[in-house]
């Protein structure tokens, strides 16, 4: 074998160098992909609105999305330590906390307990939870035990001093029918949001898993939406961004980041975990911190 390799190198020196370079670059890039899939990036956003009450100036919201019962550091130490250091006023979970293909209740319950020890934690569902009703019901019970506030088509008030804001959460449309058309999903989502009537006109935060329904959120008049689902496109290209996202197709508009139209702002997390494809490219797991500012 060694003689055969030496003969090949002697006969094809240029080709051998090219192969060696490709091999080295492949090893380096593989190490980089492993590294970027085992870190947590924190992205900070400022959300500005004249409707934010004075008492909520600087109010800090941490978002966890698409956790998929992942493991980042020993017992998810990377996530928990990052959250503690960020000192959020509340934590919001925007769906797919469980992974339907490989659900692990214990990982999720352990993280939920640690989250509620940091700040009040609010949860709304994703499409993965709709696929595994037995495991989902067990997850809800574990959430109740550690006082996670479950927002399944429900609303609550958050009060600071003399001011308060409203936080709402709606179930992922797959809980109704996973075969719905995009138009049907938009219609059902609109009706669900309106059913959580904000008749007192308070600043309203909505937890809703799907960013592709942004126009529906705008039409409903909510102030701030937290979404996930797209995993940041899973694979991202330099200068281009996300390659593909479910329900949005190739080069999606709402795979990550902050988007504003009219009086509605939507924050889309790239998420922390993976599901079908067990790795990300140019797209590290993300923890979002959004801070409210009155203008």
Tell me about this structure.
There is one protein chain. This protein starts with a helix and ends with a strand. The strands form four sheets. A six-stranded mixed sheet has the order 1-16-2-3-4-5, with helices on one face. The chain has a six-stranded mixed sheet with strand order 6-7-8-9-15-14, covered by helices on one side. A two-stranded antiparallel sheet has the order 10-11. The protein is built from eight helices and 16 strands. The radius of gyration is 22 Å and the shape is globular. It is of the alpha/beta class and 295 residues long. The protein folds into two domains: 1-36; 42-294, Metallo-dependent phosphatases (Purple Acid Phosphatase, chain A, domain 2).
- What's the CATH architecture name of the largest domain? 4-Layer Sandwich
Please list the strands of the largest sheet in the order they lie side by side.
1-16-2-3-4-5
Number-wise, the strands total 16
Count structural domains.
2
Counting DSSP H or I runs of 4 or more residues, the number of helices is: 8
What's the average pLDDT?
93
Give the quaternary arrangement of the chains. single chain
Please identify the top-level CATH class of the largest domain: Alpha Beta
Report the major sheet: 6 strands, mixed
Chart the SSEs and their pairings.
Blueprint: H1 2-11, H2 13-36, E1 41-49, E2 60-64, H3 77-86, E3 90-94, H4 105-118, E4 121-124, H5 127-131, H6 133-145, E5 149-150, E6 154-160, E7 163-169, H7 182-195, E8 204-207, H8 214-220, E9 224-227, E10 236-237, E11 241-242, E12 244-245, E13 249-250, E14 257-261, E15 264-268, E16 286-294
Parallel strand pairs: 1-16, 2-3, 3-4, 4-5, 7-8, 8-9, 9-15
Antiparallel strand pairs: 2-16, 6-7, 10-11, 12-13, 14-15
Helix pairs in contact: 1-2, 4-6, 7-8
């Amino acid at each position: 074998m060694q003689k055969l390799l030496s003969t090949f190198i002697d006969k094809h020196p240029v080709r051998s160098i090219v192969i060696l370079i490709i091999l080295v670059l492949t090893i380096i890039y593989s190490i980089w992909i492993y590294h970027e899939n085992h870190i947590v990036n924190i992205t900070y956003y400022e959300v500005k609105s004249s409707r934010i009450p004075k008492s909520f100036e600087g109010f800090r919201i941490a978002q966890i999305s698409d956790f998929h019962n992942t493991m980042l550091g020993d017992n998810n130490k990377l996530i928990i330590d990052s959250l503690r250091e960020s000192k959020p006023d509340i934590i919001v979970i925007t769906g797919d906390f469980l992974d339907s293909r490989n659900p692990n209740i214990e990982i999720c319950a352990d993280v939920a307990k640690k989250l509620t020890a940091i700040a009040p934690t609010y949860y709304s569902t994703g499409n993965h939870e709709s696929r595994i009703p037995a495991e989902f019901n067990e997850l809800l019970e574990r959430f109740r035990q550690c006082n996670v506030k479950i927002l399944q088509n429900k609303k609550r008030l958050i009060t600071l001093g003399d001011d308060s804001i409203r936080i709402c959460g709606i179930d992922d449309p797959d809980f109704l029918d996973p075969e719905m058309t995009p138009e049907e999903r938009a219609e059902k989502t609109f009706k669900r949001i309106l059913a959580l009537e904000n008749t007192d006109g308070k600043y309203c935060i909505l937890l809703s898993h799907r960013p592709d329904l942004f126009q529906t959120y705008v039409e409903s008049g909510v102030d701030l939406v937290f979404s996930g689902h797209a995993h940041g496109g899973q694979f991202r290209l330099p200068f281009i961004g996300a390659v593909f996202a479910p329900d949005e197709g190739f080069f999606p508009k709402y795979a990550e980041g902050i988007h504003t139209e009219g009086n509605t702002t939507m924050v889309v997390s790239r998420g922390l975990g993976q599901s079908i494809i067990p790795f990300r490219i140019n797209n590290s797991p993300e923890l979002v911190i959004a801070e409210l500012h009155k203008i």
